[in-house]
Specification:
The protein has 207 residues and is α/β, with parallel strands linked by helices. The chain is 31% helix and 25% strand. The protein has one domain. It contains six helices and ten strands. The longest helix is centred in the C-terminal third of the chain and has 19 residues, at 164-182. The chain is globular, with a radius of gyration of 17 Å. The two termini are 19 Å apart.
Length: 207
């Protein structure tokens, strides 16, 4: 699973390391991994980019406190974060999200460190298939802009209905959401993989 950002163009990230605790995933999109000198890293980790984003877990206040402390302690090693904060798209395009006050408690301490901050968005498969997920685009865009987010990251990894039609419907959702976000100068990212409908890279790149 490798997320990549879309904001006019596409930027593909390098790798993900699985960790425990408040960091669920560590996403590396640059030429530095934590504080390890680049000369000690194997060549596959050296990629032409200068951004490093960490995935953080912020579902509880305790996790949020730990995540902010971790980001502050390693501020020189990263440029931004993605976080799981309980945002999702459900049936008929309904949006579930924490209150603005709760989101602010997670986002603002990280933005104060001059980091970019993106929030993961889960999506109900039925809403993608029946097309109603697109109804969520205006609500998600408004939420992102209102709360000072720099991006949303769609974490949609279906394991059933692996068809070209499913991929096209998902691409339509991505295209619709990207248009709504870009009007507010917010980036959109999506998780991709080597299996299922997430292998249709050219289809998603066209969005």
């Amino acid at each position: 699973m490798t997320p990549h950002l879309a904001h006019g163009g596409w930027a593909v990230t390098a790798c993900i390391l699985w960790l425990a605790g408040p960091i669920t995933l560590l996403l590396v999109a640059g030429d530095i991994i934590s504080d390890v000198p680049t000369q000690s890293m194997p060549m596959p980790f050296l990629i032409p980019s200068n951004t490093v984003h960490w995935w953080l877990q912020t579902h509880t206040p305790a996790y949020t406190t730990q995540a902010v402390a971790l980001a502050r302690a390693h501020r020189n090693s990263l440029t931004g974060v993605y976080m799981y904060a309980g945002v999702s798209v459900g049936a008929n395009g309904s949006v579930t999200a924490p209150s603005d006050a709760t989101l602010a408690s997670k986002i603002h301490p990280l933005r104060a460190l001059n980091l970019t901050v993106g929030v993961a968005v889960g999506v109900l498969q039925d809403a993608i298939v029946d097309g109603t997920a697109t109804h969520a685009a205006p609500t998600l865009a408004a939420m992102a802009a209102r709360n000072g987010l720099t991006s949303l990251m769609v974490d949609y990894e279906p394991s059933t209905d692996i068809t070209s039609e499913h991929a096209r419907r998902y691409a339509h959702f991505i295209e619709t959401l990207a248009a709504a976000l870009h009007e507010r100068d917010v980036q959109l990212g999506m998780c991709v993989s080597s299996w299922g409908i997430l292998t249709n890279f050219s289809l998603y790149a066209a969005t």
